[in-house]
Design brief:
CATH class of the largest domain: Alpha Beta
Oligomer: single chain
Shape: globular
Helix content: 40-55%
Radius of gyration: 23 Å
Bound molecules: flavin mononucleotide, iron/sulfur cluster
CATH superfamily of the largest domain: NADH-ubiquinone oxidoreductase 51kDa subunit
Distance between the termini: 42 Å
Largest sheet: 5 strands, mixed
Number of helices: 19
Strand content: 5-15%
Structural class: alpha/beta
Number of strands: 9
Order of helices and strands: HHHHEHHEHEEHEHHEEHEHEHHHHHHH
Amino acid sequence: MAAPLEILTAPLPAETDPGDIDAYLAGGGYGAVRKALKSMSQAELIEEINASGIKGRGGAGFSTGMKWNLCADRFPRYLCANADESEPGSFKDRLLLESKPHQIIEGMIITSYALGINLGYIYIRGEFFQIIDQMEAALADARKHGFLGADILDTGYDLELYVHPGAGAYICGEETGLIESLEGNRPYPRLKPPYFPAAIGLWGQPTIVNNVETMAQITTIVDMGAEAYKAIGSEEDTTGPRLFGLCGHVNKPGIYEYDSEVTLRELIYDAAGGIRDGNRLKGVIPGGISAPILTPEEIDTPMGFGALGKLGSMGGTGGIIVMDETTSMVDALLNASSFAAHESCGQCTPCREGVPWMNDILRRIRNGQGREEDLDLLLDVCKQIHGHTVCVFGQAPGVWPVRTILVKYWPEFRACIERKELVVPPLEESYLRPDQYEHIPPVPGNFRLKTEEADAAG
Ligand SMILES: Cc1cc2nc3c(=O)[nH]c(=O)nc-3n(C[C@H](O)[C@H](O)[C@H](O)COP(=O)(O)O)c2cc1C
Ligand code: SF4
């Protein structure tokens, strides 16, 4: 049984206001900034982050050290901490923003110093009204104490950090959409390449976009040292502590901190107290709504990015959505698809037209008006969208949930079409086992049920 951690989630002393800088300082806060700015060179810091093996916590699991190393050799450079957190099922950034604002600010100062950045932004989801005010206050306190502004801690290093509230659009979390929004434009994502932010970002300058949890983890790495950090979790897969947010049909929804070796089963049944009413598990989305669903047979997987990737899913944001046997997978997918249809920014045709089209098809299946050809049509539309869009949105929340929920719960969708009503079949009859279909999602291509004829034909 994996042991819970209390590194990022270490409780504050009773009655402490998380934004109170004096309490934070009394607990050793801003020690990592002092250590970095006073005793480490920029090159040493970058090496420390490389050595820690940290992968970004924004969803893609991209190596933070590698991203920093890709920063083009031009100045000025900018930092954007991504606090747009809008992925359904994800709420770990909100917890950190509420409970550890100074740890995030520390990480931003260290990152900026390491990369020679003098101006940074924290882009916060528009609906987080209270957090926006709290973060403004925390930045003002950090400035008052000499951790921001000119000549920080008498080192000659200058840095300003500002809060930039979003306006509530999911696409502003995509790093180039975020940059467009910061520039005051409509947040249409940019094509990558050439617009990898580390090369051509904010106002055309090299820009590091990192998730806010990644920022908080930078503080942890400098505090504990890269060696100790990478001893947590798996060096081959994902190092450091991870925050997992469990929601849906578990008895104790919430944020749990473990290393990446913890299995989905342990998170659901041990950490989150199992499934409501003693019901059986039907499906679990392991990393925010974009992450391909896993069936009950697939939950003994460790939660590392690589381990989940091998199952055709992904670690994503660590937002885990648990669905029990009473769930209609048709309804669940319609729900996910309605979100995607609403949030498509509309810039490119396959996503703008295809995602709402799939939503229409799913709605008619749910309403008992599904047509014989609808399931193949859905997979065909998935194929037309996948890889044909400006940004990953088209495939991440657009295609992957449709492709994987549809393929794995094929019998349930068929039952709804055949019986012309919403049907929730008994658990055993609702989903396919991995050996019953071809093409592991989310690999593009047509799905085909395995039949004796197909097997005979090779
Ligand atoms: C549609 C879409 C929405 C995204 N939303 C967020 C978000 O809310 N927060 C976030 O940190 N990353 C989000 N990302 C990922 C960012 O583009 C980027 O990879 C991330 O901020 C990098 O941080 P990291 O390297 O620390 O993981 C989103 C990506 C896509 C395609
Ligand atoms: S894929 Fe969708 S969200 Fe991304 S740019 Fe195209 S229309 Fe916008």
